[in-house]
Amino acid sequence: MDIFAHMTRYGFEQLLVCHDRVSGLKALIAIHSTTLGPALGGCRMYPYADEDDAILDVLRLARGMTYKNAAAGLDLGGGKSVIIGDPRRDKNELVLRAFGRFVQTLGGRYYTAEDSGTSVEDMDVIGRESDYVLGLSTSGSSGDPSPVTALGVWRGMKAAAGMRWGDESLKGRVVALQGAGHVGYSLARHLADEGARLVVADVVAERADRVAREFGAQVVAPDAIHAVTCDILSPNALGATINPKTIPHLKCAIVAGGANNQLEAETDGDELERRGILYVPDYIINAGGVINVADELEGAYNRDRALKRAATIQVNVRRVLELAASEGMPTYRAADRIAEQRMGAIGRLHQMYLPG
Ligand code: NAD
Q: In the chain, how many H helices and how many E strands?
């Protein structure tokens, strides 16, 4: 691939190619933007088929973090890293510490954290070589982000309900949950507490059964959940579940969930709009996780402060949906516009000379 053409097109700052002969480490660190502050984004470990796949993935993910962090009101830019390899086979202390050394060379331009294929324990190992690692297991670190993410998703759903039905209460609303993992389970609790009626599916049957047992949800098969007649469809499993194959079957008024990259392509967002389905942009509603980990940068981590901040996702979602409605644009575009406006406005302040 033509890396510079891609970086020019999407405004990337830096791509660091990391290699360590002895450990066999092959990793990439992408910094999309530091306009608002140091780049923050997790470290993914995955056995990419080839280098181009890994480069495209890290660039796409880093750019996504710029938008997520900006729209969440954080003073952080966007970055991401990938370690090329199978986490079950290729992960070891040396690989992780070698990666940590590379993170350290960036001197705080990039903060790393857990992502798929890496764990809190891995962050502890990376943290032996770098000061720029968040989400360690030691006390004072932010721990499991999922409950904070779920709180944000629940609050964002309420904002969407307000836009759609003029009433933010979810009491009596039917919510179909795709995925009952960390986020899905915590979200189910909030929704059940508010009196929503739940339908749930998970490929791991016990997880769906637990939500049924504890919150009275109805269980359906994983391949049927998107077609359930409901008020809100909530993707909390994989990405790209809103696509040309699933959209014709949707029988919901709102799509709002914690999963990343819910739309397979932007055209799917256009199609939802055309069908009158209100899509709550994923990176706006699922920002609770990054809000949680970013709290570590404010001094000692404070769970209450992180939860309070995640609750403001309700306001953010409202802003995005109102902008989309007033400008007649799809909601995913309104989200991008808000993130870009904030980067333009706040980033400009950094051009002002400060003595000392
Ligand atoms: P998880 O692995 O704990 O849960 C995902 C669940 O989805 C699992 O129980 C899995 O069995 C189920 N699943 C997988 N494929 C499915 C399918 N086809 N149909 C139904 N269920 C299926 O992960 P999580 O931490 O709950 O995260 C869920 C999603 O939210 C992911 O896309 C993640 O990237 C995103 N996200 C998570 C956080 C967080 O704080 N954990 C933050 C932001 C975004």
A: 14, 12
pLDDT, residue 143, reads 83
The reply to whether 146-289+298-341 shares the fold of 3-66+76-126 is: yes
pLDDT of residue 315: 98
> What pLDDT score does 23 carry?
96
Catalytic residue among 26, 80, 91, 158: 80
CATH of domain 146-289+298-341: 3.40.50.720
How far is ligand 1, taken at its centre, from the CA of residue 19, in Å?
Answer: 31
- Dihedral class, residue 283 (left if φ above 0, else alpha if ψ from -120 to 50, else beta): alpha
Q: Which CATH superfamily is domain 3-66+76-126 in?
A: Leucine Dehydrogenase, chain A, domain 1 (3.40.50.10860)
Which ligand 1 atom minimizes the distance to the CA of 178? 20
Q: Which atom of ligand 1 is nearest to the CA of 292?
A: 40
pLDDT band at residue 81 under the 50/70/90 scheme: very high
Ligand 1 close to Cβ of residue 236 (< 6 A): yes
Cβ atoms of 196 and 175 closer than 8 Å: yes
Active site residue 80: yes
Question: Does 352 or 356 have the greater pLDDT score?
Answer: 352
Which whole number is the average pLDDT over 74-90? 97
- In Å, what is the CA distance from 77 to each residue of 38, 239, 258, 354? 5, 23, 21, 21
Q: Is residue 227 packed enough to be buried (19+ CB in 10 Å), middle (13-18) or exposed (0-12)?
A: middle
Q: Give the residue from 103, 116, 110, 95 showing the smallest Cα distance to 62.
A: 110
| pLDDT tens digits, 136-161 | 988 788 988 999 999 999 999 999 99
**Spans of all domains in the chain:** 3-66+76-126, 146-289+298-341
Measured at the alpha carbon of residue 225, what is the angle toward residues 147 and 291, in degrees to the nearest 5?
Answer: 20
Nearest ligand 1 atom to alpha carbon 286: 43
